[in-house]
Here is the input.
Amino acid sequence: MKADPKKWFVLYGTLLYQYALPRVSNSDVAEDLVQETFLSALKGVDGFKGEASEKNWLFTILKNKIIDFYRKKATEQFIISMPDLRSAENDWFDAEGHWAENRLPKDWHASNTPTERKEIQQIINWCKDHLKAIQQHVFTLKYMEDLESDEICKVLNISPSNYWVLIHRARLQMRDCVEKYWLKN
Amino acid sequence: MKYLMLNCKEATLLMAKKEEGKLSFIGKLQLSMHTSMCSFCKKFEKQTNQISTESKHIHAEERMSDAANDRIIKMIDEHSF
Here is the structure.
């Protein structure tokens, strides 16, 4: 079966874009990544022997491009300052490490139907976009791209102890934000 | 027994480590003891797991711009000849 990149674009172009966009939060960047994905596919098409489906192959290329995007962003960031990170954790807990009164997790109503799940996904995406830069990167790579912490540290050029503080704080912040908007429903 | 008792701040951090499979046996024990006694941390764990699960399924509804579409099709055409 002859490889047909144009057909692949018709079939998968939009899906690739719709995957990339929430992961890079910028439509121009997402479009560029899709274009680069097809450019790589065109260059590598002779090596594609159909072991994986072309869809999986294209998605793998795209995911690597997304990681490259974050790797490059990390070289542009200012170095995170540890005191800034510490103080945020203290917003949630008192001196004894107990939940602060105004931060106690509340009960969430169910989100099981496809509509409810779509709603909560949109809330999660919005909340993620409102995290501060490095936290957003950590959250995206961990929860949207399913990278292991070791790899995230390499990509973002951070130490493991930085990573744990960042992910801890991202989880606290995300849960708070999602709760706030989910309970409004 | 006191050294086994976590506070909530510690418990929420251990949850992140547990997710990675980077929690020791003692840590797992400490964490499950804490969440069995602390309904807030139990909620926190359930809700962050939910966020984790749903995050993977996020995708946009929008399509690419016509300009990008045309650009890519043009690129594919030019590359094939």
Observations:
- The first helix of chain B runs from residue 8 to 19.
- The mean pLDDT of chain B is 93.
- Helices of chain B lie at 8-19, 25-37, 39-55, 66-79.
